[in-house]
Design goal:
single chain, mainly alpha, 80% helix, transmembrane helix, L-lysine exporter family protein LysE/ArgO, membrane
């Protein structure tokens, strides 16, 4: 492996590890479903990140600054989506494990939620397309491909590790404790939604 690959891997991990909607979703699904069922969320989230990274590598980051109103639309959509997810988490109730799993194991629903949290999340788009796109462009021509592969590998590695860690904890946490985790997650998601709304207002 080249130095540029590991540089991209480290850079990607540095951007993806801080708490965000994607991490909360992957962790909660790993906690609720365990492995290997949480792999649906890992697969969908990592695939979305891969698409965004490739878009940034191909120069789509220029759209974020050149298309009028695009960032405002992303912020508004993100605020609405995260408010919905946050309120849903805040309203979580204690449910027996079998019933909880039956309610969320539909792959289509799991994938839809993961895609929404990735592609309608303005910070994920700005970080992945904007910041990573600029970082890729700053690499030498010879190192861009391997740097890009490193950043993509970071997403897959991190989401897989996060889901696996949550799955390892699921037998330790009782249903009541999981509800409190959901509620804390809801507060965080609503906080992100509020920050997006504030940024949206400041743009006008």
């Amino acid at each position: 492996m080249s130095v540029s690959f590991f540089t991209g891997l480290a850079f990607g991990l540095g951007l993806i590890i801080p708490i965000g909607a994607q991490n909360i979703l992957v962790f909660s699904q790993g906690l609720a479903l365990g492995m290997p069922r949480a792999l649906w969320t890992v697969l969908a989230t990592a695939c979305c990140d891969t698409l965004l990274i490739l878009a940034g590598a191909l120069g789509a980051n220029a759209l974020l600054t050149q298309v009028p109103g695009l960032q405002a639309v992303l912020l508004a959509a993100g605020a609405v989506l995260l408010t919905y997810l946050g309120v849903k988490s805040l309203r979580a109730k204690v449910v027996h494990t079998d019933a909880a799993e039956a309610a969320i194991t539909n792959p289509r629903q799991v994938i839809t939620k993961a895609v929404a949290a990735s592609l309608f999340n303005p910070h994920a788009i700005i970080d992945t397309v904007g910041i990573l796109g600029a970082a890729i462009a700053a690499q030498s021509v010879a190192g861009r491909a391997t740097f890009t592969m490193g950043t993509i590998s970071a997403s897959w590695l991190w989401f897989l590790m996060l889901a696996a860690a949550a799955a390892a904890m699921r037998h330790v946490l009782t249903p009541r404790r999981r509800v409190w985790f959901d509620r804390v997650s809801g507060v965080i998601l609503c906080g992100f939604a509020a920050s997006f709304a504030v940024e949206f207002v400041r743009m006008w």
